[in-house]
Amino acid sequence: MPDLEVTVTRVESMRSDMPMPLKGGGNFVSYREELEGSAETVLELEDGQIAAMRQSNLTYVGGWCDDIAWKRIFKMLCAETRLETLNLSGGVRCRDAGNIRIWTNYGATPDVTPAGPIDAAGVLFETL
Length: 128
What we know:
Elements: E1 7-13, E2 20-21, E3 27-36, E4 40-44, E5 50-55, E6 58-61, E7 63-65, H1 67-80, E8 92-97, E9 100-105, E10 111-113, E11 116-118, E12 123-127
């Protein structure tokens, strides 16, 4: 990628029962890449190898992450840009429209939102 000083020196496939743990939680699964370069290291494997590198506003993740690792990376990137995040469960999603937050449950079972309970396949409106 232009403007990103990262080189993939090797790609490794992984067995499904042998994830590679990341420092701080989560794992690489399916595959991982060995990275090197002058970009800043922002994430490492438990064994100290580089897992993700960043230069300016570009971040390169050298492997496929499990759900825990993806959430960590997204939260880190959002926090750095001061973008608010919500930890939503199952099929619950939300959207802000002016001073209204619309909660939608795409799931087949009731769930709970920060605005209160929501029925299966239901919609809940919250005034902000």
